[in-house]
Design brief:
The chain is of the alpha/beta class. The protein folds into 2 domains: 4-117 and 302-314, ATPase, nucleotide binding domain (Nucleotidyltransferase, domain 5), CATH 3.30.420.40; 124-297, Nucleotidyltransferase, domain 5 (2-Layer Sandwich). 37% of the residues lie in helices and 22% in strands. The strands form 3 sheets. It has a 5-stranded mixed β-sheet with strand order 3-2-1-4-8. Strands 11-10-9-12-13 form a 5-stranded mixed β-sheet. β6 (77-80) and β7 (88-90) form a beta hairpin. α3 (109-120) crosses α11, α5 (185-197) packs antiparallel against α8 (230-254) and α8 (230-254) crosses α9 (270-283). The longest helix has 25 residues, at 230-254. It binds zinc ion. Zinc ion binds at residues 161, 171, 173, 175, 178, 180. Residues 161, 171, 173, 175, 178, 180 line the site of zinc ion.
Amino acid sequence: MSNYYLGVDMGGTLIKMAIVDSKANIIEETFVYTDTTAKPKDVIKNITDVFKKFKNYHKVDSIGFGIAGAINFKDGVVRYSPNLPKWNKVQLKKEIEQITNKQVFIDNDANTAALGAYWLDIKSTVDNMVCVTLGTGVGGGIILNKKLFRGNNGTAGEIGHITIEPNGRKCNCGNIGCAETYIGVRHIVKETVDLLSKPNKSKHILKLADNDIKQITPKILSQAAKKGDLVAKQVWKNVGEKLGILLSDIIDFFNPDAIVLCGGISNAGNLITLPAKQEIKKRAFKTSAKSCKIIVSKYTSKLGVVGSAMLAKSL
Ligand SMILES: [Zn+2]
């Protein structure tokens, strides 16, 4: 039996593919652009044609897919994916297995990111880990005793929808005060725009955004904060504090060895981790907080594809 695994990260812009070895080192990688208007059958044909171009494809026994949305690991069906609007109840596992004759696993992208972080950032050296994906949505994946923990329906780890403000902001999920409504990209930008609409001491945000509030991004907010912009610093402090409340809950509930932060917002680094750690110090159980490493992933763009490949190893 070979020790190579193929991973496919089906993103909204790119479909990344990579062959990795048993230690999750990337041996070969490539990508194609995601055609959101194409029929699932055509996308599947396109991807499986690309597989054959890998030099080591014949050494691969299993293929793993990471996809955003309602993905059923058990039956291998993509029920719905926001990145692939034409995909409705697609029997992805069955179809790829028929074409490739290899074992196929599919899972949601928060779980594959967690597996990726477990192998790339943690090097699989701990037993229990939580990965928090900080992007437009806030997601999570749980590694329990070195394996993904999916829960009853595969929805374990919906960390972004844990309530952190009982009378807080309204969330798309129907709840009020979810973590995502304070630390998700849209809400961070909205908070910035609100602060800029009042008398304020911001000197850099609008300059960096070409005087167009629609161009404000987390990246611009990080740049502005590093230049000393008071509004940007305030926004990141707020985000860090809310993140710290969420992480304190996770630490108390789960007592993990490590929490890995990944996704676009994690690039803010110390701007959010310092206030988050202050909050954890105030709130979390001391022994649990002390033993839990908080790490910002160095591999955000690779987590999905590597984690997808490693699905077969995490059974
Ligand atoms: Zn929610």
